[in-house]
Design brief:
With about 425 residues, the chain is an alpha/beta fold. It is built from 16 helices and 17 strands. The chain has a seven-stranded mixed β-sheet with strand order 4-12-11-10-7-5-6, with helices on both faces. Strands 1-2-3-15 form a four-stranded mixed β-sheet. Strands 13-14-17-16 form a four-stranded antiparallel β-sheet. The chain binds pyridoxal-5'-phosphate.
């Protein structure tokens, strides 16, 4: 190992604290974390010069590949103007253009206002606070509750975490905040007592597929059914498209598959093509109008880096690349290819219990050949991901479900490389 690499690892182990990471494992002498130093297209290189395909799009963010010339140029150009200004009290040339282009994905007079923030969690926080304040300013202040789905994931700040249904992450933070009622599916929602509905402001859902819940798609028609239920009960709909947004499901936004328009749409991860932290909460004119009038009706919320110009520049460039490279049209055959490669993998490996796919996102659930789950302490999914590194693939599992969610620019050949790496890690081929 190079001296540099050793030095970087030592500094990391001495002073850094990684997300979602048992640090005792991480800092163990036997663990040599990869220091990722460079990227190009779907490939990443570690500090030792080894390359890997970015099989989970750098935790679900990257869209057009790393070091994309158009995205890089957009940031460089903006950097020559100004890196950051205050969006509190000022505007800048790019934020309005980005907001208009985001709204243009939806019919006129639907989602027509954009509130910028920093990441998926803050996009959800905004939607929650707006939903509560909206009720206060429309004569229903008693509606302070939220309805969320079991096993859902909406982020880690306190408000967003209160909507989370993954008990191993969220249970210890349940005490504060607004009341949240969890339901398992549409049927359970329809069975909720009127007393709960009457005190609820909004329902929140990851449309089409729950990501952190081991990549679990909802049944077809569920989302449009949910919209109907919301309309019938005067409940607002918050869509968390932090993962599904920007093409992952085969359309720009997951809600477009079922012709659903939410009251709030939260986007983040792919907004900047996976380059910079930035998020947006899109709202309808109806929501926005309730915040007009006297000053005390304003939405008193914001972050220092709201609408960061570099983020706006690269988000706009990412939308340009969607058009220039016909990203969504080119994705359609690759989604089919992903299905057939994963069907072959399932046929070849006794450990592949189930493949769950939605667009260009797949979860590959591993179990013992007799169909029983592996004991959790075996960390089989992690082991397989570690083994796949030897075959030039990086991804991480959710328990024993491997995530395959490469950038949308991945070619069929590269997709073949990724699935072959998983196969070889599982002892196939
Ligand atoms: C990642 C994610 C979030 C949280 O986004 P951060 O940028 O990590 O705060 C929220 N919802 C969903 C569905 C996500 O996948």
């Amino acid at each position: 190992m190079r001296d540099d690499t050793q030095r970087w690892i030592a500094a990391d182990k001495a002073h850094c604290w990684h997300p979602f990471t048992p640090q005792a494992h991480w800092t163990n002498r036997a663990h040599d974390p990869l220091m990722l130093a460079r990227g190009e297209g779907v490939w990443l290189w570690d500090s030792e010069g080894r390359r890997y395909l970015d099989g989970n799009s750098s935790i679900w963010t990257n869209i057009h590949g790393h070091c994309h010339p158009v995205l890089n140029a957009a940031i460089t150009r903006q950097l020559g103007e100004v890196a950051h200004i205050s969006y509190l009290g000022f505007g800048h040339p790019l934020a309005g253009e980005l907001a208009a282009r985001l709204c243009a994905f939806f019919p006129p007079r639907t989602l027509e206002r954009v509130f910028f923030s920093d990441d998926g969690s803050t996009a959800i926080e905004c939607a929650m606070k707006m939903a509560i304040q909206y009720r206060q300013q429309t004569g229903e202040p008693q509606r302070t509750g939220f309805i969320a789905f079991e096993q859902a994931y909406h982020g880690d700040t306190m408000g967003a975490a209160s909507l989370g249904g993954v008990s191993r992450f969220h249970d210890r933070f349940r005490s504060g905040g607004n009341p949240v009622t969890f339901v398992s599916d549409l049927q359970a929602l329809e069975n909720l007592p009127e007393s709960v509905i009457a005190l609820s402001a909004a329902v929140v859902i990851e449309p089409l597929i729950q990501g952190v819940n081991e990549m679990r798609p909802w049944p077809k028609g569920m989302l449009s059914g949910l919209r109907k239920w919301c309309d019938a009960h005067g409940i607002q709909l918050i869509l968390d498209e932090v993962m599904t947004g920007f093409g992952r499901t085969g359309k720009m936004f997951a809600c477009q598959h079922e012709g659903v328009i939410p009251d709030f749409l939260c986007v983040a991860k792919g907004l900047t093509g996976g380059y910079l932290p930035m998020a947006a909460t899109l709202v309808t004119g109806q929501v926005y109008d309730a915040f007009l009038g006297t000053d005390d009706r304003a939405f008193y919320y914001g972050h220092s880096y709201t609408a960061n110009p570099l983020g706006c520049a690269v988000a706009l460039a990412s939308l340009d690349v969607f058009e220039q490279e016909r990203t969504l049209a080119n994705l359609q055959p690759k989604m089919v290819k992903m299905s057939s490669l994963l069907a072959d993998l399932k046929a070849a490996s006794p450990y592949v219990h189930e493949v769950r796919q939605c667009g260009f996102v797949a979860g590959i659930e591993l179990r013992q050949p007799d169909g029983r789950p592996f004991p959790a302490q075996q960390r089989f999914g992690s082991e397989i991901c570690m083994a796949a590194r030897e075959y030039e693939l990086l991804t991480r599992p959710i328990r024993d479900t491997l995530v395959l969610m490469p950038p949308l620019c991945t070619t069929e050949t590269e997709l073949g490389h990724a699935v072959a790496a998983i196969g070889r890690a599982l002892g196939v081929g």
